[in-house]
Amino acid sequence: MMTGPVSKGxxxxxxxxxxxxxxxxxxxxxxxxVAGGAKSLNMADRLLGQGDGxxxxxxxxxxxxxxxxxxxxxxxxxAKADDRLPVVVFFYGGGWDSGDRDSYGFAGxxxxxxxxxxxxxxxxxxxxxHWPDFIEDSAAAVAWTHEHIAKxxxxxxxxxxxxxxxxxxxxxxxxxxxxxxxxxxxDPSVIRGxxxxxxxxxxxxxxxxxxxxxxxxxxxxxxxxxxxxxxxxDAPPLWLATGDEDDTVRPRNSQNLAAAIEKxxxxxxxxxxxxxxxxxxxxxxxAPFQNKGPVLEEATDFLRGVTGRRIAPAxxxxx
Length: 319
Fold this sequence. Notes:
The protein is of the alpha/beta class. It is built from 11 helices and 8 strands. Strands 1-2-4-3-5-6-7-8 form an 8-stranded mixed sheet, with helices on both faces. The protein is globular and about 50 Å long.
């Protein structure tokens, strides 16, 4: 007899909690996302998003020996181990000094609902780590994915990268400079493309005492820390997105890299979203904010394009 009132009470509590959460997000909490507030965004996505379509297949899977060298894997709800689905390795942002994969389940769910196997790794952060530690970890995560994803429903020959902010930097460095995947005992050609959201690609001189300075300020020559330094015509296709109101990582980073790749004869797409800031482009992946701009739709269109056709390894093609 009490089921109805109790159920209504629980729904009311949930509704009030969600309202409070959204007030925090819209009332200035958006600035917290890159610095760790993604936990709130992830919670809002769970409460307000679709309740099905994706599931967490594997959590806290080591790809290395360090405490921050683990990853999570999200898959479409009905995915099977013998599927060969396209794969996206997603690197979160946080200025190379913050962030954790648990807070980015919203990105894993959003992309898995679009038909991808989604790998979200942690990586070492400042102050315990500095350049190139986070790039080496990112390369190790991609190498692990290429080696093991076939047993988890993914296609190792259809891997693309995606990242936001510092994570977009990591992804771009792996795609543009082959040394990192080679050092991880993998093949740079496994990367079929990169979708970068508000990434820093051309940010010299470093702001003294800023996040970039703390992460890589002691590197000599400093130019080798810049993705634009490695722009080349034979790089994997790049889709570079930014918001015209981004005052954290200026749009010129994406504009300059796109121009450099285009000048070298490489495939690149530049997308500038009006009215969006630095956190807005990644918030638009989460269910409560997907109406703010077609970021998820356009990013997944690109990712489907670069991973849409399976390329057989040379050993298979010869048979």
